[in-house]
Specification:
- The complex is a heterodimer of chains A (337) and B (303).
- Chain A is 39% helix and 19% strand.
- Chain A has 337 residues and is of the alpha/beta class.
- In chain A, α9 crosses α13.
- Chain B is built from nine helices and seven strands.
- In chain B, α1 packs antiparallel against α9, α2 packs across α8 and α4 runs parallel beside α5.
- The two termini of chain B are 23 Å apart.
- The chains are: A alpha/beta (337), B alpha/beta (303).
Chain lengths: 337, 303
């Protein structure tokens, strides 16, 4: 863990505590962890909607066929079956492309999971704009806004493979419905192997007193890169990984409001109702003298055609885009006192 | 929470001291005439509840009462002292709007005191207009929006398979409810997984909220639809407690196939002014109508 008190009191910019490692597809950590959980607990099972390859669960199917349910292309039934499995004492991981899992089965997510407090683990795969050129039908830019407003739901957006594994282990031991948003866009590793997910806790990746950068999912590594660029310009950015969307670390927002001069949020989804929306709600209702906030994400539009990488650039969801937003908020480094 | 609920209902005897009485349902009743009378007690109780709340779904409560009486009185293996007993049979009321009849059956089985039925839809009552499993012991699933029960029941049945358990899963759907496509998604998966531990009962009362089903979206030939989806199907009189008892006890109809019982019923059954009237989908009886219904049903409320 970062020793934040000591770092905060030091005048010199702190050394980065985390660095970016090789890129990996979080789905590999997801499927590997699910196999491990299934190996230690016979209640663990998987439900898919013909999505054996896209969820990378071929290995699970091969090893535990009796605990693998493929309902076919039928997402409402998929979530309902997960609910029944949980009623029957199993621990189901219900896995499918996030765009279909959330949108098509939204009433089941609300009623069968949230309202019923069913012990079902929803794994929304290939979320955000990962499906690139396949277009807005296959993008899942709304899933955070939709799932986080449902009472009793826990919502997690892991940043890398280590956090995906940690989130899976948390989902397994947590009693209740949970939504994990798992990307297929390869991302640099950030957190150490064996990282433990803490619900409702921001992960401080870098300390700084000029501006706070909050991101989750594929944007976290980009926020780290942005902080390095800002540091070269004399601006020290605090970088927070906001993987825990619900519960949410309000105190991290209030501390950022007290201790830094601006907040930038960045996410691979709609600005409305997502990470930026949550931060805006907290600043507006709970912060005194809130600093300016810049929300990076999709405006109220569906994405044009393009690869995931192109679309992230198109919407300014890059290190450069985050740097630009930070500079707009806090300008240059203030003179030393 | 759930274990605090007494197994037997408490009644105030004339002397004033509370007396524990045996539940009206024990799951072992084999006398079809007794089950028929107890079905009529569900009916008049559910009507008293909708009268109390000035709200409810009386017509469907009345069509489903015989099925509920047979299930809770003579079929379901349950332990009201331990509502979460892992090996219990599962019963899911997919037509969650008929909560008053379900609550009555659960109270008659001893999951909670029959006196609680007086709180139906009162502010902060555990007896919501649609069932909530987190509030009331014995409720397996939160239903209300239609088309949710069968997918959940398929999951329960697969869970039994995975765990090597012999419990059975029963789900009661409406007939208009089958217009929701999720039911047919679930039916396909029940066939694929050869769920002969799953019994779907369709309350075929032929009326939905706005009109007769056949004037809205034609359901017939309903039995053929289920057969085409891989179910073994029995089409029976849904008010004949003897037939219901036999078929529900002996299900599955065929090994290796899920069972569908089409229970041909009359919406508003047993009450002359409510029978087969679409308006009684959410009709609520006046106190005078309640008196007439009690006479016709020859039954007293259980509360």
């Amino acid at each position: 863990m970062v020793n934040s008190t000591a770092v905060a009191e030091s005048l010199a910019p702190p050394a980065p505590q985390f660095s970016l490692g090789p890129r990996a597809d979080c789905r590999d950590a997801f499927s590997q962890t699910l196999m491990e959980l299934a190996g230690t607990d016979q209640r663990v099972c998987a439900v898919v909607n013909d999505s054996v390859s896209s969820t990378k669960l071929k290995g699970f199917l091969g090893k535990y066929p009796e605990r693998f349910v493929n309902v076919g292309i039928a997402e409402q039934n998929m979530v309902g079956v997960g609910t029944g499995l949980a009623n029957g004492g199993m621990v189901p991981f219900v896995c499918g492309a996030s765009c279909f899992l959330t949108a098509r089965a939204m009433e089941q997510v609300k009623v069968d999971l949230g309202y019923s407090r069913s012990n079902v683990k929803l794994c929304g795969m290939s979320s955000g704009m990962a499906y690139g050129q396949l277009g807005p039908t296959h993008h899942s830019i709304e899933d955070i806004a939709w799932t986080r407003v449902i009472p009793n739901m826990t919502v997690i957006v892991p940043a890398d493979s280590a956090e995906t594994e940690a989130a899976m282990r948390y989902a397994y031991q947590h009693e209740g419905p949970i939504f994990l948003r798992i990307s297929r866009i390869p991302v640099p590793s950030i957190l150490p192997k064996g990282h433990v997910f803490e619900p409702g806790k921001a992960v401080r990746l870098r300390e700084g007193r000029d501006v706070t950068l909050m991101a989750n999912g594929v944007l976290v590594s980009r926020a780290m890169e942005a902080a390095a660029t800002l540091a070269a310009m004399g601006i020290e950015a605090r970088v927070l990984n906001m993987s825990s969307i619900k519960p949410f670390d309000e105190e991290a927002v209030l501390a950022a409001a007290r201790e830094t001069r601006g907040i930038v949020t960045a996410e691979e989804g709609l600005r409305a109702g997502g990470l930026g929306g949550i931060v805006a709600e907290i600043l507006a209702t709970k912060a005194r003298n809130a600093p300016p906030l810049s929300i990076l994400g999709l405006p109220d539009v569906f994405a044009p055609t393009g690869t995931a990488e192109f679309l992230l650039e198109h919407f300014g969801l890059t290190a450069q885009g985050i740097v630009g937003a930070a500079l707009e908020l806090v300008g240059s480094k203030p003179p030393a006192e | 929470m759930q274990s605090e609920v007494p197994a037997a209902t408490e009644q105030q005897n004339p002397g004033g001291a509370p007396t524990l009485v045996s539940p009206l349902f024990d799951g072992r009743e084999s006398d079809a005439a007794v089950l028929k009378h107890l079905a009529n007690r569900i009916r008049i109780t559910a009507m008293s509840m909708t009268n109390h709340a000035h709200l409810g779904h009386t017509g469907g409560d009345l069509s489903a009462s015989d099925v509920l009486s047979v299930l809770y009185g003579g079929v379901l293996q349950l332990d009201p002292d331990h509502p979460a007993w892992p090996q219990r049979d599962r019963f899911i009321l997919s037509k969650g709007h008929c909560a008053a009849a379900l609550y009555t059956a659960l109270a008659m089985r001893g999951f909670f005191p029959t006196a609680s039925l007086h709180t139906f839809m009162d502010p902060l009552s555990m007896l919501n207009g649609h069932p909530d499993r987190n509030k009331l012991p014995g409720v397996e699933a939160n239903t209300g929006p239609l088309g949710h029960g069968l997918p959940i029941a398929v999951g329960c049945a697969i869970a039994a398979r995975m765990r090597g358990e012999s419990w059975r899963t029963f789900v009661l759907t409406g007939d208009g409810e089958l217009q929701e496509g999720s039911n047919w998604e679930a039916a396909m998966s029940a066939q694929q997984y050869k769920l002969d531990n799953l019994i779907v009962i369709v309350d075929r009362n032929r009326i939905q909220q706005g009109d007769f089903t056949e004037n809205t979206i034609r359901m017939e030939p309903l039995g053929d639809k289920w057969r085409a989806f891989g179910f073994a199907v029995a089409e029976i009189d849904g008010h004949d407690t003897e037939k219901l008892l036999h078929v529900l006890r002996s299900a599955p109809l065929e090994p290796g196939k899920p069972t569908c019982i089409i229970a041909n019923t009359i919406k508003g059954k047993g009450v002359s002014f409510a029978e087969n009237q679409p308006a009684w989908h959410h009709g609520v009886p006046t106190t005078e109508q309640l008196r007439i219904a009690a006479e016709e049903l020859e039954a007293e409320p259980v509360w």
